[in-house]
User: Fold this.
Amino acid sequence: MAPRLADYKTGVHNDWCPGCGDFGILNAIQMSLAEMGVARHEAAIFSGIGCSGKTAHFVNVTGIHTLHGRVLPFAQGAALANPGMRIVAVGGDGDGLGIGAGHFVAAGRRNVNMAYIIFDNGVYGLTKGQASPTLKLGTKTKSLPSPNVNYNVNPVGLAVTSGFTFVARAYSYDVRQLKEVIKAAIAHEGLAFVDVLSPCPTYNDVNTRDWYAGEGTGGDGAERHSRIYRLEDTGYDPVVHFAGAAELDEKLGQALARSLEWGERIPTGVFYRNETVTPYGGRIRDQIRNYAENPPALQAIESGGRAITDVSPMLDDLRA
Amino acid sequence: MAGGVDVSWLVGGPQGSGVESAAGIFAGACASMGYHVFGKREFYSNIKGEHSYFVVRASSSEIRSNVSGADVMVAYDAETMLRHYADVRGGTIIYDAAMEKAMIGDVATMDENYAARLGAELAAAGRPGGVEGAVAAAREAGTAVHAVSFRAILSSLADEAGNPKLRGMTRMFNVIGAALSMGALGVPRDVTLGAIRRAFAAKPEVARLNEMAASRAYSTAESELGGMRCALAPLGGPREGTMLAQGYHGTAIGKIAAGCRFQSYYPITPASDESVYLESHVELGVSGGRPGSTLVVQCEDEISAIGMAIGSSIAGARSSTCTSGPGFSLMAECLGWAGINEVPLVITLYQRSGPATGLPTRHGQDDLLFAVHAGHGEFPRIVYASGDVEESFYDTARCFNYADVYQVPVIHMMDKYLASTILTCSRFEPSRVSIDRGKLLTGRAGSDYRRFALGGDGISERARLGVEGAEFWCTGDEHDEAGHITEDPVMRVEMMRKRLSREGLALRAIPDAEQATLHGGGKIAIVSWGSTKGPILDALEEVRAGGGPEMRFVQVKMLHPFPTSYVAHLLEGATTIVDVEANYTGQLGALLARNLGREPDHYILKYTGRAMTSTELAGALRRVADGTAGEREVLTYGA
Assistant:
């Protein structure tokens, strides 16, 4: 029986604020799993701490709600121990790019096969709206006593330079594109990152849904336009096809250049995609030949309660 | 050691000069001659140049520790001579003649505090403040001191081999020094050459050159170094079923045997050796099954290391991480997450001296109370300590069983002393390793699977990832039976009881013999934990051999939950309780006071970063026996 969207929804009460962008991301994740036909027991959502962290409880697959900033280590451990699972990690921008920034960079270098979605709203919502790492310098959202004194992290640019092999941005109110991007991220061989612009209706009164829709663009309003545009509509090709040095330079360079666009025109879609880089699981196969067939979580280690691993070669090496 | 042989051999030189391989060759030769061997390495937090030394003790009887002092010393550099000449009272010192004129001020690596103390000491005796003064002082103490030109040996080797390049191969000085002393001790030449061959088994050409150098050194020893006061003649072949192990082999091979299939770590002294060993043995033979493997992941920090291990454990693999105090500090928050989510996990904690970076390459048992309390909030855990390397092999398997059966994080306490020893011990017996994965669910789940189902003994079925019908949730928040967030006060009470009741469950179910061990008997009772076991057992023998009283030793292995009634039982009838620990505050003493309401009468403590010798410990125990000991006896032996 083909999975239905309803199968991926739990009955857990969703306590996000009305109008929160995160609803769009949650729906897109559930729709992606359903459309891809991922069996419920073969997927797991790992989440960090914050409003986005609750996502793990709303999706009806195994959900692991971890600690603030630590979603990537937990998720990578699970993905490495059982590479047959579809692992989707989710978290906020404070979670992933503030307290968890070190893990973000290190995860890129590893390129473990899984997807990571950041719910990017520019504020720490659950603690009443402090500035988060993606809020622009000088911005004053309503809970801030004074304008933000820190420069912002560029999530897409950081992902591209850290070794993520699939880097995308989407907008939580464009669920159709968001869903396609998430499906591509889940299907990607390697570590996929999706930065989802997700307005916080309660604490971010600057980057609002109206703002993204074009409020304040085009001078007096005659030329008002949505700030968001889709890369795919511009003929942009994010894919590394041959992995030659020149092509890599070009693809990384264009992704970085686009990642810096903000304000009047904000690109969404896939910025960079490179499946010519071997994922971590493939790199391991050089050391462990049967890693894919007999990964850590599925190995037999005992028989009738007795240990069955042969350590005699190691003990023989130590013979006095 | 009446009638037996017991030789302590010290080798020292700058870090990077091959002190460790020299010690490995000496220990290997002694083990192959049938001796019991126990050695430990001391080194600075440094890559090259700082003072490093190794004391290896070889005995015809069982030994478990080092003694104070040495019978033979090989000094590769002036600092070794200046730091250790007084350790070799009445024995033999062999040093490289090239350092003969060196003064204290020439030794740039010497700590200025020590340099000042040494200078004052030599000056007070009217001796020059350098190697000459040290040599004179040693000779006056009855030590035979031989200056041998290591370079001359190399030159004669070059001449003999017709290969002038060999003159510059000063990296062989370590083998030359070791061979000089082994020749003088009467170790048969072929035994030494065999040990060298084994030490350089991976590099036959290097082995060949070193064998040649050792042979030259043997000739020099025969002609110039007669009259050694002790000798190491073969006792027969290597003892049957004996291994020559490094300290970390116990937990590393223990993890492999116990089926640990995932280890994540961040490099830190003295814990990394274990992970590197696992990384060097990833593919594993499995009887009656497909080849297995241990996936070892080097992480960006210790938070990631424990986070990955938790993720892997949730996926279903036996998982662990290995660290030292600073890394364990970083793990505290994740430890609590594992606690509230009932995740089995083994954290091997190789302690060193803290706080902060403390003495990064030195020994300490500073972290007992931290291991017992680490993490905010209240959650169940087991803290378990091994007393020696052989124990650590079997204990590692126990720790994984405790973790799986009770669904708790287990902190396995090891330390730098254990990590950097080399010793002979009985071959580990994997057939004694049992594996109990507890209520791990790997097949299809029944209907209405709930990960944290209440009822029964409080331990619920734990599905691994990927089991159909057993989807589950985990959260660091308080949760309901399914694993979803709840702040309901009634559910909170139920879940707290579910989790914390298993500490009592573990105490009742784990056999007493695994919780604490009684050695000997007597009115004076020593209480201790971890690596003090070896020095204590050797010190007790020494006290007894010297006509002192029998004493009992209660070795507490399970430190949390604390086996209060069993330890109280083992202490029955004791008139004096002596707490022995390598820390300042006597942390086990605090646990005794808290749990038994009985404070130790004496504390024998050492926190110099150097492990206790049985000699100094025996001295303190004699003082306890004759009533002259203070409440705190602080030991300080060792450079």
In short: Chain A has eleven helices and 13 strands. The domain at 5-284 of chain A is CATH 3.40.50.970 (Rossmann fold). Chain A has one domain: 5-284. The mean pLDDT of chain A is 96.
